[in-house]
Amino acid sequence: MxxxxxxxxxxxEQQVTLFLMNIIQAGYLVQQGLEEYLNKGVNKRFTAFKKxxxxxxxxxxxLRRQMELDLYHHMLLPDxxxxxxxxxxxxxxxxxxxxxxxxLWGVEQPEIPKKxxxxxxxxxxxxxxxxxxxxxxxxxxxxxxxxxxxxxITYALEHQVDLQAIDLKALTFTDKRLNLSRQxxxxxxxxxxxxISDMTEDAxxxxxxxxxxxxx
Length: 216
What we know:
mainly alpha
């Protein structure tokens, strides 16, 4: 990937590329962790996935701080520096959410009814597609092209996640075999996944503003 904006700063280009790749990789690890949790609960494989996500999150924190320092130290992109930093921080929140979800599942360990397994995995897949579309938009912006298509796809996928979450909550609260406390715990579990696409939508909003303000 060649970023026109950073063509004079190879180090920063490499950092941004790695930063974005880590978010994608962490999402796939969370997906595998969710599948493992639903099938076998908290075990060594789930814990290994969680540790890998935490490692990627820590690496991205360090990368983000270094990129912000470099943007100021080298006086790069003064007209868009603050917008770019906001975008990096919005991206960072996504991988932070991945890590916090894995930690939450490992601590609370809710028992998930079998009938929710497939819908949860389907919602996770849609959430990853949403994140992937947004990351594609970020890459498109840095290449100097228009990001409207990727942003609209991101918004559409976020809406699809909302609908999937509503169906999951309906399945939960119409199940008379579940007491209220368990229903509420499952609601929070569903929300933990739903929030991924919400945060991605927020990041896409920032990208849309950048695309308008800094059209190349």
